[in-house]
Each structure stands twice: as C-alpha cells, then as structure tokens.
Amino acid sequence: MTTHPFQLHGLPALSRSTVQRDELLRKDDRRLDELWRTGQVVLVDRQGRTPVRDGATGLATRPTATVADERPADAVLLGLDGDTSYWAVTAEEPMREGLIAPPGNSWGMATGGVSQAGEEWHDLRAVGDLLDDTAAGLFTTASGLTNWHGRARHCAKCGAAVLPVAAGWATHCTGCGREEYPRTDPAVICLVHDGAGVDGENVLLARQPIWPPHRYSVLAGFVETGESLEACVEREIAEEVGVPVSGIRYLGSQPWPFPRSIMIAFAAVADPDHPLVPADGEIEQARWYSRARVREAVAAGGQLPDLILPGPTSIAHQMLTAWAAA
Ligand SMILES: [Zn+2]
Description:
hydrolase; binds zinc ion; globular; NUDIX_hydrolase_CS; 19 strands; four-stranded mixed beta sheet; Nucleoside Triphosphate Pyrophosphohydrolase; NAD(+) diphosphatase; NAD; six-stranded mixed beta sheet; alpha+beta
C-alpha cells in the first residue's frame, strides 16, 4: 500500500542542463570576444530546428570560426562548459525537399528536415527527450532566446528598433534607451485524479479539437496577470471541464519554449461523479481513464488505438507516467 503521494521520476526532459550560466560574464565584452574564438555554436533555423547527431543524443554544434571570425552582434551566450563557451545563432541552411519524421516517439506532430550536407535538423519538441543533459539544456535555452529575439524586434514602450546587448540576454531600445529582458509566460498543468486511496484510481484527461484523433492529455492553461498558480489551477479546470478541484500539490516544472512558456505542474483531486462540461471550442472531450488503462498506454509506448498520450518531451508525459506507476 502506497503511503506517499506520487512524484515525478527525475527531472523533466527540458529541465536538464549542465552548462554554467554567468550573468557578470554577459557584460564583459573583451572576455566574450576571447571566448567566441574557441566556442561552439548551436545553429537554430526559423522553424526552431537544429542539426543533431548520434541518433539525436547530441547537437551537431559548429566551431565558432566556421560561423564568423568575430563575435556577431546577434550571437547569444548559452553558457560555459569548462573553458568551452556555447552560443546560439539563428541561421538558415539549404534543405533538401521534403520533411522527415523525427527519431523516437514524438507524438507524430513534429517533423524535421535534411540539409543538403545530409544532416538531420529537428526541433526541440521532437528530440528533447533523446538529447543528453548538456544538449537538452543548450537547445532549450537556445530555442527560448532565439524565439524571443525573432519576435521582439521593437520596443514595447516607444516602438523603435531594439538591439541585442548583454550577450543576447537583453535588448536596448534605439529610441528611448529602455532595456528589455527575455520573457517567460507561466502556465499551469494539472493531473486531476479521483482521490481514491493516496493517488486516486482514475485520472481526468481531455483533448483539444485541433489535436490528432485519440490524443488526450492532462489539463493546462496560462496564468493570468494578478493570479496565483493555485488560483489558476482552480480556474482553468473549472473553465475547461466544469469541475471543482481540491488538494492542489506541486510536482515540478519545465521550460517549454514554444515560444516562451514554463509549465508548472500540479496534482489535484476532483469528484468523478461531478458532471463534466467541456468548454466550447477549447475542449472537444473530457473523460476519466483508469490507472490500468493509462499503464497499458505507457507500456505500449504511449499509443493505444484509442488513447494516445502526450509525447515524451512534455512534462504531461512525465506526470502521467509517474502517476500510472504509483
Ligand atoms: Zn523605446
């Protein structure tokens, strides 16, 4: 008999990281210029893809000298691994025609490309769980920062163009001098169970109308301004499926840079006899699944004919796997 509530099994895929962040270094231009000469570059294209190697366990980084002799103004310092500096640069490489499926099981929605040099390029959602700890952290940070720079080219206050500063960790407005920092939008994600015993015997899953058929996941939503995380969990679940929850408990978090979120995970309890009222247009269907059914889906690699679980890069996958094993 389990007496402790379930926890995530280790760090979520995109919460892994090994390089050192160094805020002071970002303002030391002389040192940055030196570090550039011996560094490695993570190229990210406008679709958020990077070249991978060794079955997508590592990133095919480039020596900085092959990218530029001097540190480019838009190069972002990701961090240091010993004496090696890692940088992100947005770049396009010629691709062959056609898209390819990523290695592993990534939910069947992400596709990659093959460069004319024969390298596979994949996005973070597709390969995040396959990458080693160093590569996962580098690509996650690179995705978030390149997304931000690609979408925030003008000052939010005066509308003038902005320029990257602090090794890509801030922008400076050319009009009013305002500084802006990379933005992260918090979102909650909650595994709702029926409260039987310690961890419940049934879990509430739902699907959005735009998802592939049979795909279900736990409920999630963005935190609103002026709202606590716990209040957001209560509100989102009430809005999405019309059910009140209690016993909200923190599980963990992971960055989700698509384009700029962090997912903050919780468990909560709801009455399985309470009527489910899916939100119009947002939730196509919501229903309770038994632990045995979810275990069966996990054992089948996340896919049964009528139940497809979230892909292994997502924290939702970690939550459901941990709950099913409890
Ligand atoms: Zn401005």
